[in-house]
Amino acid sequence: MTTLDPRATPAEPDGTGAAALPTESTRGPREVVKDYISLTKPRIIELLLVTTFPVMFLAQRGVPPVWLIVATLIGGTLAAASANVLNCYLDRDIDARMHRTSNRPLVTGTVSPRNALIFGGVLGVASVLWLGLLVNWLSAWLALGAIALYVVFYTILLKRRTSQNIVWGGVAGCMPVLIGWSAVTNSMSWAAIILFLVVFFWTPPHYWPLSMRFKEDYAAAGVPMLPVVAEDVAVGRKIVIYAWVTVLCSLALIPVAPMGWVYTACAVVSGALFVVESHRLLGRAKAGITGPTLGAMRLFHYSISYLTLLFLGVAVDPLLYFALPFANP
Predict the structure, then answer these.
(1) What pLDDT shows up at residue 16?
(2) What is the pLDDT of the chain when averaged over all its residues?
(3) What's the pTM value of the predicted model, to 2 decimals?
């Protein structure tokens, strides 16, 4: 059995043993930039911004100043990018053992660990200064807290030690909600906390289906994701519980904010589908279906759609507010 060692240097056909892998010095500027951007995990950043942007509209109860939206999104992007780059730096040994992540630049050697560490650190400092100077310092400290939670609490302390890693480590992914709210109000509120909890409880039923699909990868890397250490049926039951709690939390926002018909319709319809898809996954697991045919990725992809639709309702509702019978306009 061979192992993938990112430090290994494969031999050239002539047997000289000269390095065959490209490095930063042998790649063109466009390729190098692409490698550094990939370390920031842009798709994850997009999902984080999906929760930041709409919350600003709810906090404003209308359209926030455009400059504030742009400044907050840039600062949030820098913070998320920093956390993701530092995560890649710390997890490069795991990534080398997982097929899904084996092509990341720190594994292939196209970006050096030292340069990645510097890059991640610079992004983090830039995010805090940007938000502090252009938005407010509450948002800046929340961004710094998000970086610390993801890098230290999740990546270093939890990921390799407990099957509950994504549950508590997911707190970092909830912080953009608070950053968006604080950017507008320079304060916190119960509405922001409820949306924080929505993302918190949504994270396990979003991430565990992905872990179910790639549990062999996580097992090979020695990462005790819940699907690695528990049967699919047990994981499915927990997914169903978390999906229900997520939807109930989303409904709690209606009287607290208060929200109108637009958000209520989005929360009820998308939430019902989220719960149904969770139950369907559990049903397939109970039927003994395993592997790709279990359809875990179906729930994973829908969970992204669910969060997007829900927060779209958060943004649109204050703009097209139609009060519910029991709510104050």
Answers:
(1) 37
(2) 90
(3) 0.89
Sequence-distant (6+) residues with CB within 8 A of 212 are 227, 232, 235, 294, 296
d(CA 293, CA 315): 36
Which distant-in-sequence residues (6+ apart) come within 8 Å of 26 by Cβ? none
Distance CA 37, CA 41 (A): 7
pLDDT digits (tens, 9 = 90+) for 81-95: 999 999 999 999 999
Q: Are 281 and 234 in contact (CB under 8 A)?
A: no
Report DSSP letters for 272-285, one per residue. HHHHHHHHHHHHHH
The Cβ-side half-sphere exposure at 172, using a 13 Å CA radius, reads: 25
What are 328's two structure tokens?
A: 């104050």
Coil, helix or strand at residue 164: coil
Give the Cα separation of 60 and 310 in Å (integer).
Answer: 18
Query: Quick one: angle between helices 261-286 and 190-213, nearest 10?
Result: 30
Q: Are 204 and 278 in contact (CB under 8 A)?
A: no
Q: Which ranges constitute the DSSP H helices of the chain?
A: 29-39, 42-60, 66-90, 92-97, 105-108, 113-134, 137-148, 165-169, 171-185, 190-213, 215-221, 226-229, 232-256, 261-286, 296-316
